[in-house]
Amino acid sequence: MRLPELVIFDCDGTLVDSERIANEVFASLITEEGLPTSFAECVERYMGRSASSCVSDIESALGRPLRTELLTLRTARVDERLAVELTAVPGIREALDALAGAGTAVCVASSSTPPEIAFRLRRTGLTEYFGDAVFSATMVPNGKPAPDVFLHAAREMGFQPHSCAVVEDSTTGVLAGKAAGMRVVGLADLVAPDALRAAGADQVVLKASDIPGALGYQVSAR
Fold first, then answer.
1. I want to staple 201 with a disulfide (CB 3.0 to 4.6 A). Which of 6, 11, 111, 196 is the partner?
2. For the chain, percent of residues with pLDDT exceeding 70
3. Is CATH 3.90.1150.10 the classification given to domain 19-85?
4. Which residues constitute the signal peptide according to the record (predicted)?
């Protein structure tokens, strides 16, 4: 198996354990807006997608514009909880250390905004792994499942898409990675392994510490 030259990580749910909180908050706000939405429905419909595409779908389902500043409220409520509850995904530092030890370049490509990504990495102590190599869907015309943010990240980092691998925890992100022509490892947590495989993930892992092995790196047995 050829090793990737660049590994592109999604942020929420892949690097930081924020997706459960974010989806709880978003489901509640969408329901308050007048569109009853459960946690599971929120995960299925909106997880991994850009904010603008989520708003478009919600307004389409409602048949009217939003009555509230839904995204502003979501950011405020999520940030309030993340400031207290946010942690790094278990095993992700182990995975990042293994990639650093192998000399493999890494970056972040997320549907979140640059300030949101910066806060999450800073709060969990992961900033040191990425520095300025952080890219947001707000930097490109189309969010996931379009491949734009992954292609932008590869281009800015100086790598061809076929030499890159993507690590994602959502079907939307997996679809985007495959559309970019990249190898994709799915990290199964809120989304079932079979759903990630059906979206096109080349490998699926249940623990972040298993990411290097799935990418083809030799990992010492523990």
1. 196
2. 98
3. no
4. none
